[in-house]
Amino acid sequence: MLGELALLKKKALRKGVWFKALSRVERSIYDLTMKTVSTIRSKKLLRIIKAIVDKLRESLENPVSVLTRTVGRQLASTLAQVAISWGHLKAREWSLDEQFARYLAICWHMNVPEYYRASPTIL
């Protein structure tokens, strides 16, 4: 596990996320854990390290993938439901199509003004 922590830190430093995503306290806890502990036994420390790792992974994730997962899938599902209600039965596959969801997410991001982006459920 400590090897994975080192790789994640290396990747975060390389991408410039390490200092932006984590506070000084979180970075210190992460570094001290890697330097001093061979195996994490404390449940509290493990919970804190997991929270920091989740935060880093989320920051390292591609923004288009995040948009696809959040906005794109919701839009694809809504469009599929409308098409099904119009009698197009093959539209059930639309909500499962990752590329269609990515396309919708990118179109949404490019065409929806910033002040509407706080709530993607405006449909």
In short:
Helices cover 70% and strands 0% of the residues.
Give an overview in words.
The protein is mainly alpha-helical and 123 residues long. It folds into two domains: 2-61, no CATH class; 64-116, no CATH class. The chain has six helices and no strands. It has helices spanning 2-15, 18-21, 24-36, 43-60, 63-85, 98-111. Helix 1 packs parallel to helix 4 (43-60) and helix 5 crosses helix 6. The N and C termini lie far apart (44 Å).
Shape type: elongated
Counting DSSP H or I runs of 4 or more residues, the number of helices is: 6
Strand content: under 5%
- Estimated helix fraction: 55-70%
- Given helix and strand content, the structural type is mainly alpha
Can you summarize the main beta sheet?
Answer: none
One letter per element, helices H and strands E, the order comes to HHHHHH
Distance between the termini: 44 Å
Mean pLDDT: 89
Number-wise, the strands total: 0
Count of discrete structural domains = 2
C-alpha-based Rg, rounded: 20 Å
Uncertain parts: none
What labels would you give this structure?
single chain; 123 residues; mainly alpha; 2 domains; 6 helices; elongated
